[in-house]
User: Which sequence fits this backbone?
């Protein structure tokens, strides 16, 4: 008896759909980074004073308070240009992973958590922030995976 | 959409996001965090016992550490420890931060 094994085709997504998914991913990151960067820059003193309470940042609070929104704006600019947006997606993934690792450390270490979240999406709890960030980490991975398949 | 159109749309999105965020942040400029330093068991929306501090001064434990108040046309607080004006201020509902003043 002969058994024929049919290779199951993977989830087929057309090139056009892939392109649209990558575009949406990129625009969502641009919105997130520009929105949060503006808020952080305009309330930089409050943001820095919140960071000063963090055991991981402490006296570097002013440097971090300015560096984070500047990095977010740079990544947004890189994401705008289609030729280098893949680099921007890698940078976005790295930044969101760093944010998530920092939040997770703060929550899991039992450190005293500063009450205000720098005025940015400030209604979220720290746990909700972790899930929000993980969503964007997943989005970056999806964007990168799809843009890799495009070629 | 070609590459130039995509880049132009990206610039538009970035500008709108930055502008919207700046607009909502600036609009809240008459809104300040005041810390409840004298009356931690009082009603959060009563202006008595509140004082302004520039930094984050909350610590865990307790139900009322700080809340946001729109001070309207009152003079913005300049120094730490300045009391919340008793008139012309509006409590911002949903702004209460749990904990207690350090």
Assistant:
């Amino acid at each position: 008896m002969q058994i024929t094994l049919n290779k199951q085709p993977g989830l087929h997504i057309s090139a056009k759909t892939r392109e649209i998914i990558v575009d949406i991913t990129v625009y969502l990151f641009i919105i997130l980074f520009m929105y949060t960067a503006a808020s952080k820059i305009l309330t930089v003193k409050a943001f820095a004073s919140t960071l000063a309470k963090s055991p991981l940042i402490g006296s570097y609070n002013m440097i971090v308070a300015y560096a984070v929104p500047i990095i977010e704006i740079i990544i947004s600019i890189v994401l705008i240009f289609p030729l280098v947006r893949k680099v921007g997606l890698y940078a976005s993934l790295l930044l969101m992973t760093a944010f998530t690792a920092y939040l997770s450390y703060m929550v899991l270490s039992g450190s005293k958590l500063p009450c205000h979240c720098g005025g940015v999406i400030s209604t979220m709890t720290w746990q909700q922030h972790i899930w929000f960030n993980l969503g964007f980490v997943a989005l970056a991975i999806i964007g990168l995976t799809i843009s890799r398949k495009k070629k | 959409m070609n590459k130039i159109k995509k880049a132009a749309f990206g610039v538009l999105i970035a500008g709108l996001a930055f502008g919207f965020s700046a607009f909502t942040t600036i609009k809240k400029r008459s809104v300040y965090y005041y810390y409840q330093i004298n009356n931690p068991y009082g009603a959060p929306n009563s202006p008595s016992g509140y004082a302004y501090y520039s930094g984050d001064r909350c610590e865990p434990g307790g139900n009322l550490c700080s809340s946001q108040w729109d001070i309207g046309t009152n003079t913005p607080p300049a120094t730490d420890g300045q009391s919340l004006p008793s008139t012309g201020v509006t409590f911002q509902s949903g702004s209460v931060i749990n904990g207690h003043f350090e």
In short: The two ends of chain B are 55 Å apart (CA to CA). The interface with chain A takes residues 1, 3, 6-7, 9-11, 13-15, 17-22, 25-26, 33, 54-56, 58-60, 65-66, 94, 97-99 of chain B (CB under 8 Å). Chain B has one domain: 30-101.
